[in-house]
Structure formats: C-alpha cells, structure tokens
Amino acid sequence: MKQLFLIAFSLLSIHTFAQDPTRFAGEIDAIKNRAIEKDTELPFVVFTGSSSIRMWDDLENLFPGFQVLNNGFGGSEFTDLIHYKNELIYSYSPDILFIYEGDNDINSRKNPSEILASAAFLYADIKRLLPDTKTYFISPKPSISRWNLKDDYEMLNELLKDFCSFDEQLTFIDVWTPMMDENGEVRKDLFIEDDLHMNEIGYAIWKEVIGEYLPQN
Asked: pTM of whole model > 0.70?
C-alpha cells in the first residue's frame, strides 16, 4: 500500500490539470439524479469513464447475476474522473469497478507518463477509500480516427498494464488486441460513421473480453 502511494504521488509531480472538468456538470447532475435502488443480493458493479462507456446502451443488462450501473460521461479524461470521483464512484461503494479512461487523454496529446500519473493518483485514492473494491482498468482501444496515435496508445497500455501488476485488487483488461486484425491493423468493421466510437460488433468484443472478469453463475 505504501509503495502504491509513493508511485502515485511521485508521478503526480509531472501531472497537470489542463481541462475544465465543470464542462461535464450537466451530465454528472443527470447521473446523480437517477433513482438507483441497490440490490443487496447481487454484486454491485460500476462502469465509468469516457464515451465508449456512456454509449454502451445495453451495458446494464448484459451481465446476469450482477447489478450493473453505467456511469460513463462525455469525452472525459482521467483528470475529469478524478474531479468527479465522489459522484461517480465513492457514492456507490461498488464491489467491482471498471474504468475506461486514457483514450481522450492521448487525443489531447498528453504524454503517456502524465496519463499514468493520473491513473495512479486515482487508484491510490480508490484503494484508500474503497479497499475491498476490485478495480479494473480497461485499456484504451484502437480506432480508425486516432490510428496516427497508435504508438502513444501502445505505450500507455504497457504502462497501465505494468502499474496494475502492483496490486492484486487492480487488474488490466486488454481490449486493444482483440480489436486488431491478423495484420496488426485495427479492424474497420467495429465502428460507427465517426470511425471512433464502436458499433454492436465492437461492443460484442468488449462484452466477451470483460465477461471473463464477471463470470456468470
């Protein structure tokens, strides 16, 4: 635990909060105002992060045996989730937490090490306040529209994977590799017209990969 905090705060020294997180205030208010009744008989699962989570329309019904909540918001970055961690994570005290951030961070031209600083800072706080919560970092995905940033994505995924190995309560989920073809290129059939967000084929891959970590009874 001590080592985790040292990593987080040493990395934080190169970290900057560049964007204004209040641009998501309307979305966060809508999430907060939903009527959620927690089922104490089922493990409570929160998914949060950027639009790849927010646009996963049927997510809350995909995993029988779990109560799933979709707390995705806009084009968020790790710094935005840090700002809204109380509203999106802590207020629910989930048994299981899935986080998808880093995609928009790379597109904002943040350095992978800087993004890791945010991820480490966030997880250190989660570990402190929700020590029994099992947390998963979902790897930033490949996409057609951001393929020019492939090297930065791959570097970030390696950093996140290595970081997740420090704590048994934290796991890295690789969705990058299953979305690639046999030639090492991103599959073109996984996206809607903007070449960034996924269609039902892309989400089917995510369901299969993430479902390995939510075994059905």
From this structure: yes
